[in-house]
Amino acid sequence: MLYLAALLVHCVPLAMGQYDICKSWVTTDDGPSWEFYACQPKAMRMKDYVTVRVDPAGITCGDPPERFCTHENPYLCSDECDASNPDLAHPPKLMFDSEDEGLATYWQSVTWRRYPEPLLANITLSWNKSIELTDDIVITFEYGRPTIMMLEKSLDNGRTWHPYQYYADDCMEAFSMPARRVRDLSTTSANRVLCTEEYSRWAGSKKEKTVRFEVRDRFAIFAGPDLKNMDNLYTRLESAKGLKDFFTVTDLRMRLLRPALGGTYVQRENLYKYFYAVSNIEVTGRCKCNLHANLCTFKEGSLQCECEHNTTGQDCGKCKKNFRSRSWRAGSYLPLPNGSPNACAAAGSAFGNCECYGHSNRCSYIDFLNVVTCVSCKHNTRGQHCQHCRLGFYRNSSAELDDENVCIECNCNQIGSMHDRCNETGYCECREGATGPKCDDCLPNYYWRQGCFPNVCDDELLLCQNGGTCYQNQRCICPVGFKGVLCQQSRCEVDKKDCDGAPGAGGSLATVALGVLALQLRGWVDL
Ligand SMILES: *[C@@H]1O[C@H](CO)[C@@H](O)[C@H](O)[C@H]1NC(C)=O
Ligand SMILES: *[C@@H]1O[C@H](CO)[C@@H](O)[C@H](O)[C@H]1NC(C)=O
Ligand SMILES: *[C@@H]1O[C@H](CO)[C@@H](O)[C@H](O)[C@H]1NC(C)=O
Ligand SMILES: *[C@@H]1O[C@H](CO)[C@@H](O)[C@H](O)[C@H]1NC(C)=O
Ligand SMILES: *[C@@H]1O[C@H](CO)[C@@H](O)[C@H](O)[C@H]1NC(C)=O
Ligand SMILES: [Ca+2]
């Protein structure tokens, strides 16, 4: 142990600066102790850990066997793809093998024999782990690069996808985007998604084979041309919103939209020379461990951080059990050069035994009650240990007590519910006539209009009479001559003056006359 410690101390000065050590045993005036640093794993060749999927089904050539030609030699179509013959097959795994010098092995698609229907293929790479890119993604195409393609990325294991870069020989025509170069981006636009024409033009299929996603050029905006000033890059990664995430992926997808044409037009009489062939996809990056690990290992089919600083999880994204007296935080590259470990702390290390489930960083002693209690519980929690949900929130049954998502807002409909509290399963207390978990629906025979009101009319029990029509369960629209809530009364019965057949102008004269007579009888009008 001591020997190991001595060795570590010895190694530290050499390795410092690039965050590759999580802790070291140091001697201070108070005696020897551990010192902790922000740390991250080394960059690796990520293609060794990837799972690949090629879509649509049947896009890989060779089933049934198919002949193909090349742009260099379009009339000598002697090459064959045959999935059942290992020497002639081109399965997806050949995009990730290590190649012997000179001999390219590649995945190949079927040819464009269905032209003019587009020849579309998706190549999806999944790691089931967040990865931070540290170098360019380089895709090598044999027999010419696509004239239109798109790179997409996911940050949530393929649930949602976002464009990463567009590639076309004519960006305006293909994507209605102006062509741009990564080299021309600035510090404020380093994470812009753009369309580039640099990798899609025809240059002879042997000469220009690679399509890049330029990570280094984007880093160089901050770190200088040879990436000498990495400190500046790390500072920016901490401070610029969204910059770290821009270089983080769990999945990548190449959407191949149009193959190399070898010229301006598609030659319909020889469609055997149009197809995709990818010999290599190089992805260089490091496991994202939130600066809490310097090792990442491949276990049970997935990459996993070997978490330090008493953190745990695939990305060291939470505190270990019994180390939750403070809420979890990612380590930081700052201050330079060693960063901050932001380690998780043992429960009870500060005060008595006050666990706050990671929702508070502070405890306070309340003298007259003689208790220690968590202060300013976050994430909508409350209570001595931040173990309850605030009013208006309820417990997320699929989250642990130390999860940031442990309390879910009740979201009761303000009009339909009695108040904004709900029970343990998220049900609100509804006013009369309202229903549904959030009280935003009405019971049968009620209608919604700033709350639930009993139907005035409907198609069953409260039918509008005499040919009236029910308007949104709120009122009957009565035909001329009828009134009442359900048009049940004839105006004629109520008031003779409303009877059908009463002449228009004469009627109203008569009405005036009758009115005058009535008032006269009461002695209010002198004639
Ligand atoms: C490729 O993936 C996109 C989603 O990113 C999907 O819309 C499209 O249909 C897929 N194409 C093929 C050929 O599977
Ligand atoms: C992804 O990784 C997690 C954590 O290592 C593991 O539990 C899960 O089974 C993996 N999923 C797949 C599809 O490999
Ligand atoms: C993690 O917990 C152990 C005790 O299990 C302790 O010795 C160590 O110092 C802690 N590490 C950090 C970074 O707090
Ligand atoms: C409940 O917690 C789980 C686990 O953290 C989370 O994935 C889910 O989104 C939460 N549900 C809601 C409604 O917030
Ligand atoms: C919450 O209220 C709903 C609707 O009244 C009810 O079905 C459910 O059982 C209640 N849940 C609890 C835990 O009381
Ligand atoms: Ca290969």
TrEMBL record:
Keywords, sorted A to Z: Cell membrane, Developmental protein, Differentiation, Disulfide bond, EGF-like domain, Glycoprotein, GPI-anchor, Laminin EGF-like domain, Lipoprotein, Membrane, Neurogenesis, Repeat, Signal
Main location: membrane
Laminin N-terminal domain segment(s): 35-286
Biological process terms in GO annotation: animal organ morphogenesis; axonogenesis; tissue development
Positions of disulphide bridges: C410-C422, C430-C439, C478-C487
Gene3D superfamilies tied to this protein: Galactose-binding domain-like, Laminin
Record-linked InterPro entries: EGF, Laminin/Netrin_ECM, Laminin_N, LE_dom, LMN_ATRN_NET-like_EGF, Sialidase_sf
Keyword Cell division: no
Membrane topology: Lipid-anchor; GPI-anchor
Cellular localisation: Cell membrane
Residue ranges annotated for the Laminin EGF-like domain, each copy included: 410-454
Domain of life of the organism encoding this protein: Eukaryota
Any one of the GO CC terms: plasma membrane
Signal peptide span: 1-17
Domain EGF-like as annotated: residue spans: 453-488
UniProt function note: Involved in controlling patterning and neuronal circuit formation at the laminar, cellular, subcellular and synaptic levels. Promotes neurite outgrowth of both axons and dendrites.
Subunit structure: Interacts with LRRC4.
Name of the protein this chain belongs to: Netrin-G2
